[in-house]
Automatic annotation (TrEMBL):
Gene3D superfamilies: Enolase-like C-terminal domain, Enolase-like, N-terminal domain
Residue ranges of domain Mandelate racemase/muconate lactonizing enzyme C-terminal in the record: 146-244
Keyword Heme: no
Catalytic residues (UniProt): K168, E326
Pathways involved: Aromatic compound metabolism
GO molecular function: chloromuconate cycloisomerase activity; magnesium ion binding; manganese ion binding; muconate cycloisomerase activity; racemase and epimerase activity
A GO BP annotation: amino acid catabolic process
Protein name, UniProt field: Mandelate racemase
Claim: Isomerase is one of the keywords in the record: yes
InterPro entries: Chloromuconate_cycloisomerase, Enolase-like_C_sf, Enolase-like_N, Enolase_C-like, Mandel_Rmase/mucon_lact_enz_CS, Mandelate_racemase_C, Mandelate_racemase_N_dom
UniProt keyword annotations, A-Z: Aromatic hydrocarbons catabolism, Isomerase, Manganese, Metal-binding
Length: 373
């Protein structure tokens, strides 16, 4: 069977969300992705996805820059190798472009999908095999309207889909955030766990002032309170906080993880393909983090079913994933990009079964939502 990569195509796809989603530094009502399709000499294809959140606001990547760098630099570097040459693909892409982690992860995910489909093997098998086929899944509350968020959380609890909720704060004054959180905790605190993501929105002084109150309220985890550029501030805060801090935007590469661990800038690490640049690199980052004693959290960037399946392929193979995952993306989109959808049941997300990423991309939906160039 000829697994040579013969073609790599990409599309920008814009998918509306069911409600606005606010973070401290951006707000979206539509998710934009770059979808990558790899075609092999044997005729098999595979898909990958690069997610963004509010343009180049969560990171420096935008769908426009991701597509351009895939089409002009990354795809040509990978054409002609075998789909199973994952490490080689990573080296070739690293020599073709600095960083561009979301773009690289989309290409590598497509290689895993194509190789798995051609060989009839699940992608997780290329990563050491599954140690779990389902994991606890967190839902994000991010409309900024406590009444709506309480209603949304109650619906997710009643449907037995989610019982840990990540509240996005940092886009209002801290005092307003605190009162919104108190209302949410009063409403669901008895039956749900609540964590917060500040998305770099607070100064160290503000965090010093308000982290104790978040702890007293019973917030279980505090994500990236300060600037990703100020790892030392995170370390000082982590040293004083009795609620674990999670490192997100501050740690993309393995070297970032080593720095976060050396400085003790937190005790939980959010793992994401848009930060690691590929499934194998994500596993490496997880191994480094675990060696420093970080607990692991399966992060997301509101991926569709395509990117979610890619994350689940690697998350399912991690020896430990203490915090489960937050891949709620497929359920906040007005429509997903795959047929059948990802299964959310008994407060867990269930890994798709089947070769490659285990999903069937809906090519009709893709072409309907593809941005017309
Ligand atoms: C982030 O910073 O965690 C993940 C969930 C969410 O609502 O935002 C993303 C990015
Ligand atoms: Mg975050």
């Amino acid at each position: 069977m000829d697994l040579t990569v013969r073609a790599i195509e990409s599309w920008i796809v814009d998918v509306p969300t069911a409600r606005p989603h606010k973070l401290s530094n951006t707000q979206i009502a539509c998710q934009s992705y770059v979808i990558v399709r790899v075609t092999l000499a044997c005729g098999e294809t595979g898909y990958g996805e690069a997610a963004t959140l509010g343009g180049p606001r969560w990171s420096e990547s935008s769908v426009e820059s991701i597509k351009a760098n895939i089409d002009v630099y990354l795809a040509p570097a990978v054409l002609g190798i075998r789909a199973t040459d994952f490490e080689l693909a990573s080296l070739l892409m690293a020599s073709a472009a600095q960083r561009n982690f979301a773009a690289k992860a989309a290409v590598e995910s497509a290689l895993f999908d194509a190789a798995g489909r051609a060989l009839g093997l699940p992608a997780s098998l290329f990563l050491g095999g599954q140690v779990r086929n389902a994991m606890e899944v967190i839902w994000a509350l991010a409309s900024g309207d406590a009444d709506q968020e309480i209603e949304e959380a109650r619906a997710k609890l009643a449907a037995r889909e989610h019982r840990t909720f990540k509240v996005k704060i940092g886009f209002r004054e801290p005092r307003e955030d605190i009162s919104r959180l108190r209302r949410i905790l009063d409403a669901i605190g008895g039956e749900a766990r609540v964590i917060v993501d500040i998305n770099q929105g607070w100064s160290e002084a503000t965090a010093l002032r308000f982290l104790p109150e978040l702890a007293e309220m019973g917030i279980a985890l505090i994500e990236q309170p300060c600037s990703a550029l100020n790892m030392e501030a995170m370390a000082r805060l982590a040293g004083r906080s009795n609620v674990p801090l999670m490192v997100d935007e501050a740690a993309f590469t393995g070297q970032d993880v080593i720095r976060a661990g050396t400085l003790a800038a937190g005790s939980v690490l959010s793992l994401k393909l848009v930060k690691s640049g590929g499934l194998i690199e994500l596993k490496r980052a997880a191994g480094i983090a675990a060696a420093f004693g970080f607990e692991l959290y399966g992060g997301c960037l509101l991926e569709s079913g395509i990117g979610t399946a890619a994350h689940l392929a690697v998350f399912s193979s991690l020896p430990r994933l203490e915090w489960g995952t937050e891949h709620f993306g497929p359920r906040i989109l007005v429509e997903d990009l795959i047929r059948g959808g990802i299964v959310y049941r008994d407060f867990q997300i269930h890994c798709p079964e089947g070769p490659g990423l285990g999903i069937e991309v809906n090519e009709d939906t893709l072409s309907r939502l593809a941005r017309k160039t």
